[in-house]
Structures are given as C-alpha cells and as structure tokens.
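Objective 1b: paired records.
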Amino acid sequence: MRVFIRFWITKENKNFLGKGKVELLEHIKATGSISKAAKNMQMSYKAAWDSIDMMNHLSVGAMVESVSGGKGGGGTKLTAQGERAIVVFKKLERVIAQIEGAMCASEDFDSLEQKIILLEKQLTNLS
C-alpha cells in the first residue's frame, strides 16, 4: 500500500505556508528578486506578490523585504523570519515523509491500523 500525506500551515483561516510558498521563498533567496522568482516558478508577478504580502501580514515579522538602491539597483531578500520558515517547514516535511514511509510498509488495513495506533500513542506522549 502507498500512503500520501499533503500538508500546509494555516493561520487566521488562510493558507499561510505550503510547498509552493516555501518554493517561492527559496527562489527569492536565490535570485534576490520577486520577478525572477515568479518567472522561475512560471507564475505571474502579481500572484507571487500577493503570496508574499499575505505571508508578511500573517507572520509575526515580515518574511520578505525590499532592498533599495545600490550598484545593481534594488531587490528583495528574505528576513530571518523567512529563513526560519523555510527551515521549520523542511523539518516538518521530513517528519511527514518518515510517517508516509512507515505507513507504506503496510500490506493491508490491519497492519496499517496497527501502525496508526502506535503512532497515536507516541504522539500522545508529546502532548
């Protein structure tokens, strides 16, 4: 059996952070530009800007900020909050992948259920 888990983080009933938004942050970090990041992802500048604006407003501190002037002109960079969001999301992604892997080793619903019960017990201990 194969088990697939999709996840994202919501805040104030809005999709705050997910795979696509993290990818957008990573492209901004690599290119220093919202425009280039959007182009790399084959999305419109407006869609990229709207995502960034929403993340900035929902986050405790801005995740992306403008950089003005300089020799090459202005640009965009991630803040410490933006960098932290990527790190934490990637860690959660690895944990989810481990859960998927453990569940995929199931041959039938009985074995899958036993793994779920074991996982529930372990998670209860974390609370």
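Objective 1b, second protein:
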Amino acid sequence: MTKATRKAIKLLLENLQQNGYHIFVTVKVNGLRCRFLVDTGASKTVIDKTYVEKKFGKRILKTIKQQTTGLHSTTHESYTARVATLTLGTVVVKNCTLAAIDLSHVNGTYAALKTKKIQGILGSDLMVQERMIIDYNTLTLSFA
C-alpha cells in the first residue's frame, strides 16, 4: 500500500478516572466494526475469544500450548485467531494472526466505569509493523 493512501485515523481519548486516560480506535475485523483499546505496552494485538466464537465461529481459532502472561493473569493454553482482514482506516492487513483471549475482565472494569466494551487490543506488534504514530495533539493515529 502506498503512503498516499495511508490516511490518519481518529482516536478517542476517554478519561476513565481521575487523570487516567485510555485511547480507543475503531477497526474492522473481517468487515465488522470493532472497538479496540490502543495499548503500546501490549506486545501482541489481541481479540476477544468470545467475540470471535460468536461472530466468526471456532473454526478460525487455533489452540497453542504456550504460557501467556497478561496484566492480571497467566494461562498455559492460549489461542490465536487468523482473520482475513484487519482494517485501520485505509490500511488493510491481510491474513492477520491475532492472539485470542478472554477480555471479560477488561470489559467488566469498563462496565463499572460506564465505558463501552472492547472487542480487542491494538498492540505494539501491529504498531511497529505498520509504523504507526500516535499524535496526542490531534488525537490521530497515522502511518510513517
């Protein structure tokens, strides 16, 4: 994809608690609109496993025997989901493999804070791969 077609996309900055912010972005997974948390500290981009099963079926999930550690948990069996397309504005990533995990604990926290739930987390793997730049002044995500 040429740089001319890689347009910046709008980010949503939400103040969750006293001076605490989260950044969200709208992406499309296989054409379905999803809300992802932007997390520069996440090593992998993830999608909610329950969302995958509901919208795309279990057939796109693959079980892997690998310890996965997150902020609040460690599991010895994890999953990946291979999606045909992950679209961020005008940028389309084809045959994208995402980690698939249960995000109910995150969405439970968001429900308590009266914030919309998420379907995934945009991690540093895709940010580095697509050379993304977060501009806090304009609240946009652009591509180098």
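The first strand starts at residue 9 and ends at 10. The chain is about 15% helix and 50% strand.
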